[in-house]
Design a protein that fits this description.
This protein has 286 residues and is of the alpha/beta class. The chain has helices spanning 2-28, 32-39, 64-75, 91-96, 111-114, 143-147, 162-168, 182-191, 201-210, 241-254, 258-264, 279-284; strands spanning 41-46, 54-55, 61-62, 80-85, 102-108, 118-119, 124-126, 128-133, 154-157, 176-179, 196-200, 214-216, 222-223, 226-227, 230-236. This is Ectoine/hydroxyectoine ABC transporter substrate-binding protein EhuB.
Length: 286
C-alpha cells in the first residue's frame, strides 16, 4: 500500500512537472541553427544530379551546391554535413516534413518555389541543353524543334523546371516522358523511348561525357522568346529564419571570391556562371 501510494504520488509529481515543462518549452525551444551548432552537423537533401549535388561511388556528398553549403556552414559553426538522397520532386516536401534541414541540389529559384521555401541568394546562373542520340539524327535543337514535330518525345525530370519550359513552348503533355532522375533520362534516350532529354547545360554535358551513344546539343538561353538562364540556390524552411540569415550573410561575401571560384571550377562552374539576378528579383518573376 505504502509503496503503491508513493508510486502514485511520484507519478503525479512527474506528470505535473511535465505539464509545467510543456507549458514553458516553446519559449526555450532550440532553433534549427542552434541545434545544428550544438550537434555539430546538419542534414541536407540532394537529388544525385551531377554536377549540382551527387554522391561519389564511395558515398561522399559533393557537387557545386553541397561544396558551397559545406564551406558556408563551416563559417557559421556547423562542421559536418550529412546527405539525404531524395528524388528531385520530393525535395521540397522532404524539407517541409523535416527529413532534412536544407536543400543542396542546385535548385532553380522560381516564383512558385519561393512560395514554398526560403531561398538563399543564387550561387550560379546557367542556360539549357538537350541530350540526344549520338550524331543528333533528328536535328533537334531546342524546345521549338519538339513543339514543331508531334512525333518527337521529350524526357524531363519530375519536379524540375523543364516541364514548364516545354509547356511554354507549346509542347503537350502527350509528348513528354516524365522520369525521376538523370540516369532514367539517359536510358530513355539510349533506348529510344525519348528523342531528347532536357536539363541545364552543365548537367547535359556531364551526362553526355559519361554515357555511350548520346551527346549534348549546343546550349541555348531562350525558350518561347524568354530567357531561361536559370539561377540556383539553397532552400530552407521559411520558419528557419536565423539559419537562413546566418547562411545568407556569409554566402553574399563568398560568391565570386577566389575561394568560391576555386571550389566550383572542378564541377564546370566558375566566372562564366556567376549569378546576374538576386533572389528577390527571381522570386518576383522580374
Amino acid at each position: 500500500m505504502t509503496s503503491s501510494a508513493i508510486s502514485r504520488r511520484t507519478l503525479m509529481g512527474l506528470t505535473a512537472g511535465l505539464v509545467t515543462l510543456a507549458g514553458i518549452g516553446p519559449a526555450f525551444a532550440e532553433t534549427t541553427l542552434e541545434r545544428a551548432r550544438r550537434e555539430g552537423f546538419i542534414r541536407v537533401g540532394f537529388a544525385n544530379e551531377a554536377p549540382y549535388g551527387f554522391a561519389t561511388p564511395d558515398g561522399k556528398l559533393t557537387g557545386e551546391s553541397p561544396e558551397v553549403v559545406k564551406a558556408i556552414l563551416a563559417k557559421i559553426g556547423i562542421p559536418q554535413v550529412d546527405g539525404v538522397l531524395t528524388e528531385f520532386g520530393s525535395l521540397i516536401p522532404g524539407l517541409q516534413a523535416g527529413r532534412f534541414d536544407l536543400i543542396a541540389a542546385g535548385m532553380f529559384i522560381t516564383p512558385k518555389r519561393c512560395k514554398q521555401v526560403q531561398f538563399s541568394e543564387p550561387t550560379y546562373g546557367i542556360g539549357q541543353a538537350f541530350l540526344v542520340t549520338k550524331g543528333n539524327p533528328k536535328g533537334i535543337k531546342d524546345y521549338g524543334t519538339i513543339a514543331s514535330n508531334k512525333a518527337l518525345k521529350l524526357a524531363v525530370m519530375a519536379g524540375a523546371v523543364e516541364a514548364g519550359y516545354a509547356k511554354d513552348s507549346g509542347i503537350p503533355e502527350s509528348q513528354l516522358v516524365i522520369l525521376p532522375d538523370q540516369s532514367s533520362l539517359v536510358k530513355a534516350v539510349q533506348a529510344g523511348r525519348a528523342d531528347a532529354a532536357a536539363l541545364t547545360a552543365l548537367s547535359i554535358a556531364d551526362m553526355a561525357s559519361k554515357n555511350d551513344g548520346v551527346e549534348s546539343t549546343p546550349p541555348f538561353g531562350t525558350v518561347a522568346g524568354k530567357s531561361v538562364v536559370g539561377h540556383g540556390g539553397i532552400a530552407f524552411r521559411k520558419e528557419d529564419t536565423d539559419l537562413y540569415e546566418a547562411f545568407n550573410a556569409e554566402l553574399k561575401k563568398f560568391i565570386g571570391s577566389p575561394e568560391h571560384i576555386a571550389l566550383v571550377t572542378p564541377f564546370g562552374f566558375g566566372k562564366n556562371f556567376l549569378p546576374t539576378l538576386t533572389t528577390a528579383e527571381l522570386c518576383s518573376g522580374e
